[in-house]
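Q: What would this chain look like folded?
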Amino acid sequence: YKRQVYSINRITPDEYLNDWKIPPTINNKTRLKEMISRQYKTVDSFDITVQIGDELFKVPILVLQGYSKFFRLRSRHEKVIKLSSTLITPDIFHKIFVWMGNSKKEIQRDFFIPLLLGAQYLQVEMLEQQIWNLIQDGEKFQESEAFLLYLEAKIFNCEKVQMMMMSRVQRFFMTVVASEEFLTMEAKEITNWLKLDSIGVNS
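A: My prediction, written as structure tokens:
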């Protein structure tokens, strides 16, 4: 089994994104990559501890600050930074940290929604933009795939993704109606589906 990953190298327009800062120039990106690479190779650079619940992560603050506005706004004198375990899990923090050190900036499809929410919490704009652009891809997320992502977004109460995916379910809607997931939907949720002009029904 080959895990499904997507790279940040593919960027498409996204109507759900606005107010993004001007992307860094190639030279700035290169310098950032070089700086981060040096930090990962230097043991002494792992100079702060991030705590999430009972989990502790020894990490280099400069790497986190290179991507995360959340960490850039923290005092450089802090040695232990506590994160809310209700907003980000230790596993997702670890995946975001690994993403920071991955030159290809790959992410796994199975973690789109929690990674998106984690990126929003930590204000990692590059990762958040990458995920939004991938979700926006109408070729990858259409019909059955759109419904699966809708269900994932529902688990995390990510309404913006839910609404986006609902509009992508058209011919697949009758299959949705016959599913167990549809039977467990609340009345308001079903009403939202039936209001859509895009859904397809058999005549």
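Confidence is low (pLDDT under 50) at residues 1-26.
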